[in-house]
Structure formats: structure tokens, C-alpha cells
Structure of Flavin reductase like domain-containing protein:
Amino acid sequence: MKQFLAVELSKTQNYKLLTGGIIPRPIAFVTTHDKRGTLNAAPFSFFNAVCAEPPMVMISVGRKDGERKDTTLNILNNEEFVVHITDEDIIEAVNTTAASHDRSVNELNFTDLEVVPSESVKVPGVKQAKIRFECRLHQLIPLGDEIEGSDIIIGEVVHYHIDDDIYYDDTKINADQLNAIARLSGSNYSKLGEQFTIERPES
């Protein structure tokens, strides 16, 4: 078995081991806007649910050359954002928004995705996403040093939008109908494969 000391590896090497080993990862497609109302959209695979009461989600946004990305700056300024679950129907468009653009550019203009108003936050959402969570900033936690580090953004979910076709039986979601896409390493992604059930043991 290969062994490595993390401190002896470069940032890229650590990233490859983390993203290659921690798979599959759900993809948060996040919309924010700046003070002028310019919309920003970007995907993040360092993402998960972290609390149920109140409901909270987490995304980790890395810094680029020591600078915070547009998503982080917008959330800090407005304290609101929308998280969409990436599925098979929108993955190509979501991937398009990952390209680097000037801060004044709305990435959604390069896709066929449609914007819809939110109910409880000012940031709009994406119509085609089967699930979207309207969020308010709960906490931002800087990690690592100022150049190579990341920001953990924890948002409280204040409003859910769930497509009728995937919703059933009092707040359950049909995974087969959702068709969520997961991130692997590099440019590789995964669809949901064979599913199985293991019952949790009794105490």
C-alpha cells in the first residue's frame, strides 16, 4: 500500500488524492449575485448537507491566486444564494458555467438555462433544476492560508423547490427520477448505478 505524508505533497497532489479517493461527490450548482445584481453561476463538488435542524448545506470554495472567487464574495456581500442539485438534464450546461470569466459576466448567458425568481431570497434560481435550495449565509469559515486555502460556506436552507415528478409520500425524493450526477476526479463524472438496501441494525 502506498503511503504519503500530506505535508510533503504539493497542493495539486493532495487535491488529486482527495478528489480521486472521495467519490462520488454531489455537485452543487450555485447562483449568487453581486451588489449591482449581476448574476453568477458556478458548480462545486466539495458540497454536502451538514445539519437538519435547522436545515443547512455546506460548500467549500477554493481561492484563486489568493483571491476569493465571485461566489464567495457575492455571498459575503449579500448573505444569500441558491443551491441546485446537478442532474443528467443540466450537467452539460452546468459544466459550461465552470469556465473562467470576468466578474461582470453572467455565466448563464452561455447556456440555455432559464432564470426564475426565488420566494424567500433575492437571488434567482434556475428553472430546469429539479431541486433547488434557497439559502441564507449562516457562517463562513476560512481554512488554510490566505493564498492556497478555501472558504467553507454554510447556508441555512429557507425554502425548498422540488419538482413534482421526483416528489412522493410526504417529503421523499425519488432518486431514479432525479438522476443526479456525481463528480469523480479530473473530467470524470458518474450517474447513479445499481442501488441496494442495507437495514440499519437495532440498538
Summary: The first strand starts at residue 25 and ends at 26.
